[in-house]
């Protein structure tokens, strides 16, 4: 029995992870679950999977959950302290971090310090604090198993350790989002409703907007640079509308390997939870004949500026990626509230990176402070 704690269990990744666990009930024990504010959903999950611990980020929601679960032995925690307590539990064999945003960094570091394997679905952990996380993981001998479909694909292609030593380049695939082929003028007119219509994946609102701006792909580039020890110039991005090839690797002899599958996150989630084994999956088989054809195109960095901003941040290093991530997170929230336009997301992220002081060497406190500075910059820039 593998003992699992899931941070962000009511979100898209968390619910699909629980679906995977339900498909293998004799192989997993759920130790802890957490959510932001979805009391009724987390209560239902707790009653089904009977974890020892549950955590709500929102203090008021935590009080409600304690009342709702008063007839059980489940201990309900709250806030960042609660998340870090879940992350540090000695019962954990693996921690699936699927929270959205910077809130995921501290629990990741806490779990690594406790020697727990990380199944990582929280981009901001490596984008904002990549050096802190990877240095600590090396020191503690902890595995970071990627859950994002692209990074999982790369990871799977590198299981031949002899070939992995000859890795020349990483190629991330991108669906292109709902606005592939749009001009800047067209993007200026898109609405929140338009941006939330992803062609292939069912994701949370923030990640879906990031996919529409191509910010998501830029953040993945930064994440890949830390996971696979590659510079930004050793990572390519190609638009692949069908989302069948999830990413590729190129070796010194210029041969390439790719991982293919239907666009279903349960594949990379399950691989992270069962690594290094592969088990039967609830996901349907891929039929190449039914796919018909697969297409590829270069991303339009001039139109979708968020991708270029992330590449620049990756080359700058230090706190630049953290600045872009924090500014983007705040800008996306404002866009979802109807307070700014679609194109302003990238404009604000770029302005924050070019305006705020940066550091090449940083601590956790520096990262958290820079994230808050970037958010405050965005709010001040639009008078929010």
From TrEMBL:
The protein's required cofactors: Mg(2+); Mn(2+)
Domain 1-deoxy-D-xylulose 5-phosphate reductoisomerase N-terminal: 4-130
Record domain DXP reductoisomerase C-terminal: where: 260-376
Binding site for Mn(2+): 148, 150, 220
Residue span(s) of domain 1-deoxy-D-xylulose 5-phosphate reductoisomerase C-terminal: 144-228
Residues involved in 1-deoxy-D-xylulose 5-phosphate binding: 123, 149-150, 175, 198, 211, 216-217, 220
A Pfam match: DXP_reductoisom
Top EC class, one word: oxidoreductase
Keywords, sorted A to Z: Isoprene biosynthesis, Magnesium, Manganese, Metal-binding, NADP, Oxidoreductase
A molecular function GO annotation: 1-deoxy-D-xylulose-5-phosphate reductoisomerase activity
GO biological process: isopentenyl diphosphate biosynthetic process, methylerythritol 4-phosphate pathway involved in terpenoid biosynthetic process
Pathway linked to the protein: Isoprenoid biosynthesis; isopentenyl diphosphate biosynthesis via DXP pathway; isopentenyl diphosphate from 1-deoxy-D-xylulose 5-phosphate: step 1/6
Catalytic activity: 2-C-methyl-D-erythritol 4-phosphate + NADP(+) = 1-deoxy-D-xylulose 5-phosphate + NADPH + H(+)
Protein EC: 1.1.1.267
Residues that bind NADPH: 10-13, 122, 124, 204
Family from the record: Belongs to the DXR family.
NCBIfam families: Dxr (TIGR00243), PRK12464.1 (NF009114)
Function: Catalyzes the NADPH-dependent rearrangement and reduction of 1-deoxy-D-xylulose-5-phosphate (DXP) to 2-C-methyl-D-erythritol 4-phosphate (MEP).
Protein name: 1-deoxy-D-xylulose 5-phosphate reductoisomerase
Name of the encoding gene: dxr
């Amino acid at each position: 029995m593998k003992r699992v704690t899931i941070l962000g269990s009511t979100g898209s990744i968390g619910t699909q992870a629980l679906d995977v666990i339900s498909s293998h009930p004799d192989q997993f024990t759920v130790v802890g679950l957490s959510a932001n504010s979805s009391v009724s959903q987390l209560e239902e999950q707790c009653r089904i999977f009977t974890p020892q611990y549950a955590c709500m980020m929102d203090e008021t929601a935590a009080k409600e959950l304690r009342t709702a679960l008063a007839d059980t032995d489940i201990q309900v925690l709250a806030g960042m302290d609660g998340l870090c307590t879940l992350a540090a539990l000695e019962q954990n064999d693996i921690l699936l971090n699927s929270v959205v945003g910077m809130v995921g960094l501290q629990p990741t570091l806490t779990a690594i310090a406790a020697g727990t394997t990380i199944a990582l679905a929280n981009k901001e952990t490596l984008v904002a604090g990549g050096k802190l996380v990877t240095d600590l993981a090396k020191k503690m001998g902890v595995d970071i198993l990627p859950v994002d479909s692209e990074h999982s694909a790369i990871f799977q292609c590198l299981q031949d350790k002899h070939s992995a030593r000859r890795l020349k380049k990483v190629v991330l695939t991108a669906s292109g989002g709902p606005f592939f082929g749009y001009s800047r003028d067209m993007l200026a007119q898109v609405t929140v409703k338009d941006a939330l219509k992803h062609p292939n994946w069912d994701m949370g609102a923030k990640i879906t907007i990031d996919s529409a701006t191509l910010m998501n792909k830029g953040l993945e580039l930064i994440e890949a640079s830390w996971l696979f020890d590659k510079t930004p110039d050793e990572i390519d991005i190609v638009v692949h509308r069908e989302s069948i090839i999830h990413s590729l690797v190129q070796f010194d002899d210029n041969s390439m390997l790719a991982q293919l599958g239907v666009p279903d996150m349960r594949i990379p989630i399950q691989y992270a939870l069962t690594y290094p084994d592969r088990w039967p999956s609830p996901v349907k088989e891929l039929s190449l004949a039914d796919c018909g054809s697969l297409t590829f195109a270069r991303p339009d960095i001039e139109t979708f500026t968020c991708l270029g901003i992330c590449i620049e941040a990756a080359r700058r290093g230090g706190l630049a990626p953290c600045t872009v991530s924090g500014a983007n997170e705040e800008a996306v929230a404002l866009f979802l509230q109807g307070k700014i336009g679609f194109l302003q997301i990238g404009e604000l992220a770029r302005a924050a990176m070019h305006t705020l002081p940066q550091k090449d060497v940083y601590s956790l406190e520096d990262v958290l402070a820079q994230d808050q500075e970037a958010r405050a910059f965005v709010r001040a820039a639009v008078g929010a």
